[in-house]
Specification:
5-stranded antiparallel sheet, 5-stranded mixed sheet, alpha+beta, 633 residues
Length: 633
């Protein structure tokens, strides 16, 4: 009996394991964003969990995970430390990759099996959740192949939240796990936070108790969740002017979505779900997609149009599409149940037949990623060999001291001219192999210095173009063929650049560099131009860096690191004034003396307040979450 009940879950997991083993196995993928995500995990494991921890290696320095959700990497750090270091950084990344791929299918199966009462009838919906691509950023293509792993893991937590709210929706006490789950969703990927709020509100409204009281309970749960995530979210909001919104996506037109047969069928099945629901949980799931679609429309028409694009509509839409999949999966289970009763057909046969039909319907438009294509999942080892990266990193180690400016964010993996052709941001790993920082050479980034490189100014406008769209075309907002030595000099001194790296396919547009810089050598597809040695801050202890600026007393000089309000400077124990420079670099006003200037970096009022909020939230949650009188039947 136990084996029969586990047969459907085991079959789904077996399929997922077969896919993952074929696609990436025990290797670390190098396609697109994966190298940069691996670096972020290394940053957390080696430098600590505080999200404001300084990353000196990218973009002349940045508090890397203060402006990018840290939850996914915290899971990797837990895996590493729980194994006492036996699971290396790359080993933890491999485990996270497998978890992120399998999780949406597993959590969707748990929810749909709860609704259907039979795992075989729940299998079609879970299979679609596992394999969905169709332009969904958290799907297999975006979340696994491209490497937006945090988005996919946060997506997988949404069915668990619905399950946690199932008892409350029918009148029981609210599950204490609800608030931590919402906080986890925020920390893993806040684009799914609107969906979490919608699920909580829906669970309050479908219950039998007085709705106003239940909405009050929901507000308390949200407040506790906000407190629990406050150590990251509060400083993020307080320091938001030091980040640039990443708003490069667009909602896919409805006619494009409807041209894919599977998506049209899913929408039709989701539309009949409210009439087939037989429980408060079923009612909540059946209304999920339509409420979220309304949220996406408001976000797109009102909020995005107003320029407030911190949570763009195309990313929030992932929650709506998961709702469509689960509502359609619930309808499918009900219809298969009726068919099994009327025709006396085995549920296993009907479930497998529906899975096969979904696969066939997905072929036009490739709505589902059913199997990895050969050559589309290159490993980090293979890319390092093919691009001769060891030679590049050896050459950079021998170059004059300073940072590396990459003229591209990515390295193409195939010949062509289309910006979307297969590529890798493997140069993001340069600091790990050369112990020198880089400017550019990574995926689209929210730092002001990144905005400077992309469009020529570090202003507060959103970054609306992917870095790959600019590769080989522009840099610092000017055409690549207009980039010359004076232009590099204008930016290179304050950014601490001593060597410039380009690609051989850009040679026709790089004559200006040849005229003013020394081309040192070519390694594989990489070209290296040499500037003079240049001093950048040197770490001398936790939160301490030293610079040796050249300048007179009372003169403002660049510290050659990006500006952030947590910086302080002193010389010989005397505090020095600091300010933001024209390129959003840190400037220091020198005092009399000739010794080094010490740069001090540590948590400020916003960071300490955020930690205090999380401690308060943990106390509130551990002592009862919400008053008992609000959560009784």
């Amino acid at each position: 009996m136990v084996v029969a009940r586990l047969a459907a879950p085991l079959l789904l997991v077996a399929y997922g394991v077969a896919f993952a083993a074929t696609a990436f196995g025990l290797e670390v993928p190098a396609f697109d964003d994966h190298p940069g995500q691996l670096y972020r995990l290394w940053h957390v494991i080696t430098r600590g969990l505080a999200p404001w921890r300084w990353n000196p290696d990218w973009w002349a320095g940045y508090p890397e995970l203060q402006f990018y959700p840290p939850g996914y990497f915290y899971v990797g750090a837990v895996l590493h430390h729980a194994s006492f270091g036996l699971l290396t950084v790359t080993g933890a990344y491999r485990v996270l990759l497998w978890i992120a791929y399998l999780a949406p299918g597993v959590t969707s199966l748990l929810l749909l099996a709860r609704l259907a009462g039979n795992a075989w009838l729940a299998l079609p919906g879970a299979f679609v959740a596992l394999t969905l691509s169709a332009g969904v950023l958290s799907g297999v293509e975006g979340g696994i192949h491209i490497g937006m792993l945090p988005a996919r893991l946060g997506w997988a937590l949404l069915p668990l939240l619905a399950l946690a709210l199932a008892g409350w929706s029918r009148g029981d006490r609210i599950n204490p796990a609800s608030a931590p789950l919402i906080a986890a969703i925020v920390l893993v990927h806040p684009a799914h936070a609107p969906t979490a709020v919608v699920l909580l509100v829906l669970s309050a409204l479908v219950g039998a108790a007085p709705r106003l009281r239940r909405l009050g309970t929901a507000a308390l749960v949200l407040a506790v969740a906000a407190l629990l995530s406050g150590f990251w979210a509060f400083p993020l909001l307080a320091r938001l002017s030091y980040a640039r919104a990443l708003a490069w996506g667009r909602l896919a037109p409805l006619d494009t979505l409807m041209s894919t047969p599977l998506l049209a069928v899913l929408l039709l099945l989701a539309a009949v779900a409210p009439w087939l629901a037989r429980s408060p949980l079923g009612a909540m799931v059946s209304r999920w997609p339509w409420v979220m679609m309304a949220v996406v429309i408001v976000q797109s028409v009102v909020v995005d149009a107003a320029g407030l694009r911190w949570l763009p509509a195309d990313r929030i839409a992932d929650g709506a599409w998961l709702g469509v999949v689960l509502a359609a999966g619930s309808s499918t289970a009900r219809l298969l149940e009726r068919l099994a009763a009327s025709r006396r057909a085995p549920p296993a046969l009907l479930g497998l037949g529906a899975v096969a039909l979904a696969g066939v319907l997905s072929l036009p438009g490739a709505a589902l990623t059913l199997w990895p294509q050969p050559g589309q999942w290159p490993s980090l080892h293979a890319v390092e060999q093919g691009l001769r990266l060891n030679g590049l990193w050896a050459a950079l180690r021998e170059a004059p001291p300073g940072r590396v400016l990459f003229l591209r964010s990515a390295v193409p993996l195939v010949y062509g001219s289309d910006w979307w052709r297969p590529h890798t941001h493997v140069t993001a790993l340069t600091p790990l192999h050369t112990e020198r920082g880089i400017v550019h050479g990574t995926f689209t980034h929210p730092s002001p210095i990144a905005a400077l490189v992309y469009r020529g100014d570090p202003g507060r406008r959103p970054i609306t173009a992917l870095a790959e769209q600019l590769d080989g075309r522009t840099l610092f907002g000017r055409p690549l063929d207009a980039l010359d030595a004076p232009a590099i000099e204008a930016y290179g001194d304050r950014l601490g650049v001593s060597v410039v790296v380009g690609l051989d396919e850009d040679i026709p547009r790089l004559a200006g560099l040849d005229a003013g810089l020394i081309r040192r050598e070519q390694v594989g597809p990489f070209l290296l131009w040499q500037r003079r040695a240049i001093d950048v801050p040197i770490g001398v202890g936790p939160g301490r860096w030293e610079i040796r600026p050249q300048g007179r007393a009372e003169e403002w000089v660049s510290a050659r690191t990006s500006y952030y309000p947590l910086w302080r400077a002193e010389r010989d124990g005397v505090a020095l004034q600091t300010r933001r420079g024209p390129l959003w670099d840190l400037e220091v006003r020198l005092a009399p003396g000739s010794g080094p200037v010490t740069l001090l970096y540590g948590a400020g009022w916003a960071e300490l307040t955020g930690v205090a909020l999380s401690v308060a939230g943990l106390a509130a949650w551990s002592t009862g979450l919400v008053p008992r009188r609000l959560v009784r039947r």
